[in-house]
Amino acid sequence: MAVPDLTQQQLDDIYAFAVDLGRRAGQLLMESIEKRMDGEEQQTVEEKENAVDIVTQTDEDVEIFIKTAIQNKYPSHKFLGEESYAKGQSRDYLIDEHPTWCIDPLDGTVNFTHIFPMFCVSLGFIVNHRPLIGVIYAPFQDQLFSSCPNRGAWLNEKRRLPLLRNPVPPMPSNAPSKCIFSCEWGKDRRDIPDGNMQRKIESFVNMAADAGGRGGKGGMVHGMRSLGSATLDLAYTAMGSFDIWWEGGCWEWDVAAGIAILLEAGGLVTTANPPEDVDTAPIEDVRLGSRLYLAIRPAGPSATETGRESQERTVREVWRRVRHLEYTRPGA
Ligand code: IPD
Ligand code: CA
Known about the structure:
Blueprint: H1 8-37, E1 45-47, E2 54-56, H2 57-73, E3 78-81, H3 82-87, E4 100-107, H4 109-113, E5 120-127, E6 130-138, E7 143-148, E8 152-155, E9 159-160, E10 180-183, H5 196-208, E11 223-225, H6 230-239, E12 244-248, H7 252-265, E13 268-270, E14 292-296, H8 307-319
Parallel strand pairs: 3-4, 10-11, 10-12
Antiparallel strand pairs: 1-2, 4-5, 5-6, 6-7, 7-8, 8-9, 12-14, 13-14
The structure holds D-MYO-inositol-1-phosphate and calcium ion.
The site of D-MYO-inositol-1-phosphate has 14 residues, from strand 4.
C-alpha cells in the first residue's frame, strides 16, 4: 500500500499534538521524581540485558500513557515504544514506510534514577523511514526541543535552533580541533579484547589526544561530553552546543526525535562506522535502525566552503580517528 503524503496542515496538527503530549508525559516523569525527593515513594529498578540496562515503573507507566494518547488520536498510525519492544521477542528493525510513532518514555533512565537532570521524554514521528517530527522534553530543566518540517527546530518554541544563527558558524577549519565532541559509553560493557567497549575507548582517546599524538590520529577536541541520553545529545547538537556526536549501540527510539530536530535545524546524520575509503566514500543519510550514528551540527558557509562541505569534511576527519563498531541488526 502506497503511503499518502501528509499535507502541511496534517503535519502541523501532529506537531501540536506531539508538543502537548511531550509536555504532559514529562510532567509525569517530574511528579515521579518529586515523590522520591519528598520521600513519598521508593524507586524500583529492574535489569534488562545487564546491570546498566535498567527500567523503572515510571518508564512503563509513561509509555502506556503516551501509547494510549496516540492510539486514541491517531488509530491508523503505528506505534513503537522502547518498553513495548523490550517485551516482544523480535530484536529486528520493525519500522516500515507507514506513519509510525517511535518513542522513548524516558531516555536517560540511569540519569533519572540518580536524579541527574539529563532525562527526558522523546517522541519521534516517522514516515517512509524518515523522522519528520521530533519532540523532546526534559522536565527537570523545563527544556522542550521540537521540530516540524518547514517550520524549523526550536527550544521552548521561542528560540530557533541552532542558537547561533546570525550567521550560523561554519565548522572549524581544522575540525575536530576546536569542537565539542559528544559520545556515550553505552550499555555494552563486555571487556573483551577488541570488543565494542575497547574500540570506543580507543576512538575517544584518539579524538582527545593532542594533534601530533596517536600516529597522527590525535583530534585535540576542545572537550568531550556525555549527557547519558542519546536524544538529548542530538538536541544539543541541533543547538550547536555540541559540534559532533558519535555513538554506536543505541536504538531507534533513542534517536528518532533527536534526528528529526537536528535535520530540521540543518545538521547532518550519517553512519558512525568509517567506510573503507574515508576520503571519497559518499556521505549517506543514516539508516534509522542501524544503531550507528555520527551527527554534525548545523553549519553555515565560510569564504571557501558551503556549510555542507564543512560538515562533510568533519565527518571524514572523525571517520579517520574512530574504530569500526560491531552492531548487526536484521531488517535495518
Ligand atoms: C540509553 C541512553 C544512553 C545511550 C544508550 C541508550 P535509555 O537510553 O540514550 O545515552 O548510550 O545506548 O540505551 O535506556 O536511558 O532509554
Ligand atoms: Ca528509555
